[in-house]
Amino acid sequence: MSSERRALAADSLAGAKLDNFFTLHAQLKETAKLYSAREALFVHATALPTRRRSHFDAQNLLETGGRKPYQHNDGWMNRLLTLLPRQEGQALALAPAIPMILRGSHAVSSFAPSALPTASDDLLMRVSALYQQDPQLHAVWSRAIATRAQAGDLADGRLNAGAMGQLAAKLLVGGDGARIALIESNHWDTHAGQRTSIATRLRHFDNMVVALKKGLGPVWANTLVIAATEFGRTVAPNGTGGTDHGTGGAAMLFGGAVEGGKVIADWPGLGPSALYEGRDLKPTIDLDGLIASALAQHYGLDPRQTMRVLFPDSSGQPFGKTLIRA
Amino acid sequence: MAAPAIALNRFGLGARPDEPLAGDPKRWLLGQLGRFEPRPAALRSVPSRAEVAADLTGYMTAGRMGRRKGARMQADGAQQAAAQPAMPSRKEARQELVRDIHGQYRLMNSARLVSAMTTTTPFVERLVHFWANHFAVSADRLPTVGLAGLLEFEAIRPNVLGRFGDMLLAVEQHPAMLIYLDQAQSIGPNSQAGQRARQRGNNRGLNENLAREILELHTLGVNGGYTQADVTEFARALTGWTVSGVQRTRVSRYVRDAGPGSYSFADAVHEPGARRIVGRSYAQPGEQQARAILSDLATHPSTARFLATKLTRHFAGDEPPPAMVDRLARAYLSSGGDLPTVYRAIIDSPEAWAERPAKFKTPWEWTVSSMRALGERQVRPGLGSQLLKQLGQPTWQPGSPAGWADTAASWTGPDAMLRRVDAVQRLASGAGSQVDPRAIAERVLPGVLSAATRTAIERAESPQQGLALLLVSPEFMRR
User: For chain A, what is the radius of gyration of the CA atoms?
Assistant: First the structure.
């Protein structure tokens, strides 16, 4: 590792020691506690089998589960819903619009807090009547009304990351509400000034995870949280105190359901000859196989079938190791 | 949808009840190409480049003085107490400048909305919004908060009826773009600046962000036939393209002062040597090199296809009909990227006049068309930025250089619908009690209104509620 990368990574060396090789970033304080409680598992040097350095291509692949960007019009999380019992197969995006990963034939909902004064019940009722004849708007509108009722007082205002975790928990613990939630987290594209910006992002992320745990209460014991990204960053810093789009990166699993307290990696090393195309961390674990295995183990599904439905064109295999408690 | 309604809503920005469309819809659209004003009254009082740059320079200077004082205090602990009173004023000065810059953003935001509400050339105004989104800059960090709007006013509007290549060059040399995609601080490793840094043990240099996004998002498109090597080569060619006076970076000392916030080429930062990009060689010196590359990219067949696809999607539907894409790409290539030629090909495309609504309105389109339907010509200060943020599309803040998505799936989530209904109650409540929502409905959606919507409006408990129902009706949500 060059001395410059060392400076960029200083905060990552200052956090909790995970084993005799990996450490956690200093801002991930609550995450470190989850790791000690064996409720957090990290996988390193992982990436999707199709390598793209365009955000938009790579995000599309991560969300659609395809081999080629824009080849599929639905997301793998929507396809997952078709494998689950009706009760389990209800999903919600915590966003004003539904992200690609959740789009598809299975109806899903979306919700995000609003600072607008809410419309009167009378107007809502009249709009319901107005949309009766329009199948698209009628379906969307019915889900909107139901979710707003469930969010209650968290429906108002702008939320920080912690409150977002709290809201997600609230929408998940209700009796007949969603059982799967998607939270998008942005601004990880640290081309410049990475040391400060990554610290802020990780602190917010840490707050969100702990708020989720707190809000879910006893349900946390049966919960699986997957945190994944479309690609890692270049190993060497660029000319502007940041890093450019890379390949291999980390994925994280949290929750009481996780067989945690370990880092899984087939570490390729950071020497010049070990890098992918001479610049990026070389991926040694397929991210799609990892996701499929975690979900299959969690829901008691057949790993191969899960892989076929979620990532139909993948050449990869389900990941063989135990990720979820038996 | 009948032709007049399509011209007003799909090509235009929604009807104003006080400006009915008279005459032939196609002629009305073509006529706008000769009447468009790059700098209409609504935009004449927006903060200038000089004002925005002055605030950024002030912020940078206040920061430096604050830091120096802080460093000295640390070194000299005994005097710390005595020196302290000066500190808050620096901090306050910076906070004041930050407030000022956000104020400028809000002013530009309102001006953009008023311009869209009042324009008599709404087809061309729509195209301005289209290109501003194509060349998206996100006002997420302080320097781009004030500059993002200026990119649209200074680089897009004057070129919307010109050649794409001219618009491309104006955009890539605009300080908003150079700063947003980190180009302003990229250094050629073998340039004078790069060599000097290396001698001091700093391995500082290239940032390939802008080069990549020009190829992927601005010109060839992601499958347009370029490689990672092309990206890096192009990044080398672009070194030296920077901005003077508003940022303090490792490049600053090499930048000739062209006035704060102005584009400047810094030869000492430029990577020497010839470059090879997408199969062509470029041996030009200095600034001319990247100019020549941009010029070739502008007329590349992949660029023609990429832009034709986006334009077709914008006017003929989320699944762009291939025949129209081919037609627009041909018009583009045969005219050397002359935009009015392409616009005429759009107007002449039967696919763009299909009766079924082609598009679900974005929050921006819905807001503009609502304000136009309400006959408004002014907005309360700050309303535009507040409202669009709540509706999920804050102006000049798509959060990514790819801009906002132009497909219904991005805007039809349950929450997004709920927000429009929340917002409409507020918008419509401003209308006077003398308005007749039934008459307005017939004027803004000529020949389009469904029986269900007409009945809902008639049965509303007040004129305001009638207007609210019109603006969230299925017909008004689409174009």
Answer: 20
As a whole number, the mean pLDDT across chain A is 89
Name B196's Cβ contacts closer than 8 Å, sequence gap at least 6: none
Cα A97–Cα A102–Cα A106 angle in degrees, nearest 5:
110
Helix (H) or strand (E) run with residue A93 in it:
strand A91-93
On the CB side of B317, how many CA atoms lie within 13 Å of its CA?
A: 15
Is residue B439, in this structure, part of any structural domain at all?
yes
B80-88 mean pLDDT: 50
Contacts of B197 (CB under 8 A, 6+ apart): B187, B203, B204, B205, B250
**How much is the pLDDT for B77?**
46
Over residues B317-334, the pLDDT tens digits come to 999 999 999 999 999 999
E-strand spans in B180-261?
241-244
For B403, nearest residue in chain A (alpha carbons):
A56
Q: How far apart are CA A303 and CA A292, in angstroms?
A: 7
Six-digit token string for B413: 């989530």
Q: How much is the CA Rg of chain B, to the nearest whole Å?
A: 25
The verdict on residue B285 lying in a domain is: no
With a CB cutoff of 8 Å and minimum separation 6, the contacts of A292 are A303, A306, A307, A310, A311, A318, A319
Q: What is the DSSP string of A57-80?
A: HHHHHHHH--SSTTS-SS-HHHHH
> Are A124 and B421 inside 8 Å of each other by CB?
yes
- Scored b (16 or more CB within 10 A) or e, A177-210 reads bbbbbbbeeeeebbbbebbebbeebbbbbbbbbb
Residue A4 contacts B where some CB pair is shorter than 8 Å: yes
Q: For chain A, give me the number of helices (H) and strands (E)?
A: 11, 8
Which of the listed ranges A142-156, A252-266, B198-212 does the model predict with the highest average pLDDT? A252-266
Whole-angstrom Cα distance, residue B79 to residue A24?
A: 39
Answer for the pair B147, B176: CB distance below 8 angstroms, yes or no: yes
What integer pLDDT is reported at residue B404 of this predicted model? Answer: 95
pLDDT of residue B69: 47
Q: Alpha carbon of B455 to those of A129, B272, B428, B438, B461: distances in Å?
A: 11, 71, 18, 10, 12
CB contact under 8 A, A242 and B418: no
| Whether A242 contacts A23, CB under 8 Å | no
Expressed as residue numbers, the domain containing B446 is 363-477
Determine, for residues A143 and B216 on separate chains, whether the beta-carbon distance falls below 8 Å.
Answer: no
Show which of residues 192-231 on chain A sit within 8 Å of chain B, judged by CB atoms. Answer: 192
User: pLDDT, tens digit, for every residue of A70-90?
Assistant: 788 899 999 999 999 987 888
**Domain contains B413:** yes
Number of domains in chain B: 1
Residue at B426 is within a domain: yes
* A132 Cβ contact list (under 8 Å, min separation 6): A138, B452
Distance CA(A255)–CA(A217), nearest Å, equals: 11
Question: A96 and B413: CB-CB below 8 Å?
Answer: yes
Whole-angstrom distance, CA of residue A204 vs CA of residue B315: 40
* ipTM, 2 dp: 0.85
Q: What is the rounded CA–CA span in Å between residue B208 and residue B188? A: 11
Residue B34 C-alpha, separation from nearest chain A C-alpha, in angstroms: 37
Contact A150, A177 (CB under 8 A): yes
**Does B187 score more than 80 pLDDT?**
yes
Does A188 lie at the interface with B, CB-CB under 8 angstroms?
A: no
